[in-house]
Each structure stands twice: as structure tokens, then as C-alpha cells.
Specification:
By secondary structure, the chain is mostly helical. 84% of the residues lie in helices and 0% in strands.
Length: 379
Amino acid sequence: MAAVTGLKTGRVTDVIVYAAFAGTGTGVVLPGTLLSVLLARWALSDQQAGLLFFLFFVGSSIGALLSRGRLSKSIARGCLCIAAGVVALALASRMEVFLAMTLFGGGLGVTMTSVSLLQSRRRPLERTAEMARLNMIWAFGAFLSPTLLLRGAAHWSLQAVLYGVAIYFIALALLAIFLLDSGESSTTGQGIPSRLSGIRALPLLLLVLVPLATGIESSVGGWLEAYSKRSGLLLGATISTVTCFWAGLLLSRLIQSQRSLAVSTQQLVLRVSPWLMSVGLFVVIVRPQGWFILSGALLLGLAIGPVYPLVLSLLLGYGEAGNVMFLAGGIGSSALPLLTGLVSGGTKSLAAGLSVPLAGSVVMGLCAVAYRRQRGVEA
């Protein structure tokens, strides 16, 4: 009887955390998906939009470090913070939007980190597959975003879309408070200093891949909608381009979520993915029309999808010291979109701005080669 009860409790926990993670997928890509709407509403330049992304992901980085205490409660706090940030964004003036976006990002950082750590502890024997499964579910939320958010903003209003997102996360917070399995051990005492002190235990080259993977994903996911629109694509084609990117990412993580494939393809992902990302980005930049931009976006999503879950699982294998990767991921997620905006604003060309994630993918490929050689020497 106890085993049956435990199984049901585990399933309820899975439903809540997967729903929360899918919601964070929508939340993370919301600023990029609605970028043209946000730029028009507050009359922001590309540099200011880059700053908006920067503060959004800085908030996410801070949230990752503040994910502590009992993880079930931390998830609830993160969801409430997301709801507060989204409501603040709906009501914000031109200057207040930066603070609202930081709060929004902070809630996402707390929620994503808490869910990742909770599932890593619940399924240590299949950590690689579970991390891929989580990020596949995240990608599913991101995949739905272009249609839900852009169509919603076009048919109703930006405020209506934001209020809908807030209601979703408030409901998840209530479910987490009352139903989420709280049997996991508390992380109180695993504070910021002790987490950061574990960085010496991590392979440096592997850790470097984290901000590159999250930064490229955030930069492309953040700017692709605006880039497509400025390239002359209509609303339907713009949605298709962004959807192709997230569909590729979703498909690759769906494949990687199979345990046997997640383990057997680790070296292949590190060896091939960065270079395929470079090819996809190059196509998007040089031929932003028709099937070229769609295929480039799809290839880019397919290539980048497996990288972050793989590196996440490898670093979490080093224990709680791996938590520092969430900070590293936040640094990349904040820096590369900002640099993309600065280059775009300085050159008056968003295509030039996208050379930033293109350069990042090349650096990632070189780091992956160096890491594999280092591991070969150590073996």
C-alpha cells in the first residue's frame, strides 16, 4: 500500500515539475518572441533591448543562486516571483520595464534550478536521460510560444497574454505548496559560498561550454523574431521561422531523452553539434528568406538542443559543486544577447549582431575538441 501511495505521489510530483518546466520554457522565450511588440510599446533601441535581455538573464543567474531550502517550496517561490514579474511587466512604464524584466528572470532562475536539482536527486541513476527529458519539456513550452504569444498579442493585447502567463504560474505555485512531494532533503546549508567553492572540482573546459550553450540559445531565441521581421517576413513566416528553431531543439531533446541514446551519443554531440550550429547560423545570416532561413533555424535548433542537457548531466555528476553551472549558464544567457544588441545597434545591422552567437558556436567547437583531447590524455 505504501509503495502504491509513493508511486502516486511520485507521479503527482512529475506532473507538477514538468508543467512548471514547460512554463519556464515559454517564460524564457517570451521576451524574444514578443520583442517587436516590446520594442514598439516602449520605443526601445537595439542597445536598450540588449540591456533588457541582459537584466532578464542576470535576474535568472541570481535566481539560480537563490534556489535553496526545501526544493518543493523553492519551486513555489519561483513560480510566484515569475507571476509577480509578468504582472509588473504588463503594468510597467518605459523605465520600470527593466526592473520588471529582472524580477521575471529571477523567478525563472529559481524555478528552473530547483526543478533540475529536485529531479537530479530523485533519479540519480538516469540523470543524463532525465536532464534531457526536462529540457525536452522545456523546449515544448518554448515551441508553443511563437503561436500562443504572437497570435495572442495580435488578437487580444500584450497585457492579456502576460496576465494569462501570470495566472498559470500562480496556479502552479499553489499546486507546489499543497501537493508537491516534500520528501527530498533540504538544501539549507548549501549556500552560495559553499556552492561557488566547489568550482575547483569541475573540468574547466566543460564548464566553459555552459555559458556558450545557454548564451547562443538565448541570443538566437531572443533576436530571431525581430531579425525575421526586419528581413521582410510576414507574421506567419516569422512565426514559422521561430517555430522551426524551437521545433529542432524540441526534436533533438526528445531523441536525447531516451536513456540508451543519451549515453551512447555523448561524444557525438560534443564533436558535431557546435559545427552544425555554425552552419545553421551562417545560413540564417546570409540567406534570411524562404526555405533557407527555415532550414537554417531548424538545423540550429537540432544542433544546440542536446548540448546543454548533456553538459548539465556531466557536471551534476560531480555533486552539488555542479550547481555553479547554473551561474555560468546565466552569465552566458545575459552576456551574448547583450553583445548581439550592442553590435546590432552599433552597425545598424541585426545580421551583424548575430555574428556574436556565430562566433560563440565556433569557440564552443574548439573548446569541445580541447576537452575531448584532455579526457583522452587523462584516460
